[in-house]
Amino acid sequence: MSTTSATALPDGGLRSPGAGLVTLDPVHTALLRGLDGLLTGLAARHGAPEVTGPPLLAAEGLARLDYFRNFPHLGVGAGTFAPESLDGLAGGEPPAGLPLRPTGHLLPSATCYGLLLSLEDRDVGEDGLRLSATGRCFRNETHYDGLRRLWGFHMREVLYLGTREGALEHLEQGAEFVRETAGRLGLDLTRATADDPFYDRGGSRARLMALDPVKHEFSAPDGTAIASVNRHRNFFGERLGIRAGSHGPAYSACVAFGVERWVHAMILAHGSAERALDRLRAAARDL
To answer: How does DSSP classify residue 271?
Structure first.
């Protein structure tokens, strides 16, 4: 018998206000919150403090990080209604089709961008710096698919900046945490090299990535990638002037978790949101 105390909506739960958008019922919400809490265990191991990133990112800053060269299709821009639209809106005109004014900002597509941009020209010291955050992220995908692929979703990241050796250690420990947590939750994950073009597609950097991949993903049996370990080398350190004391430009790395995708993987593994929530709570009690 289920010990779940959260109440499901009568139709089983997921409301879809539009493509790539979803409202979670109480059971799915409890899963989301509980999983995010469990995933903070990696931050706790590293002593990484919790921070909150900005809700918008300057397009100029993202351009300096080659964001648009690598991910021109993903960006979701922020706009305001142009002054000539205001009278129509106040008079009850439908907003669709009224002119928007660009703000020069985008909604984040990953949690780490805002954290990295906020560290520009900083020295993280000889011992490096770790930060942890969950951000609401947005991606303009070619298609959407339930909790597997959303327009807006939550991403938990644990970010490291410091030495090359420290970045590699961060990723090794992160990968071990993913495997350990998946086992605790009854998830069967596979690890594979990802093909995200973190570096530009042409030239020596692309060839280097092919020989020495910078991203690995952990996927559920249906192919849904729910976590990744990402090695940035000293790319962000050089572009943003972030230093690691006498070591020069900081190396960085992050471990990322798509929280809604973990919810999906739990339901896939355990058959229902209620049983998945029971397993999550049992795993949390055993910690």
So the answer is: S
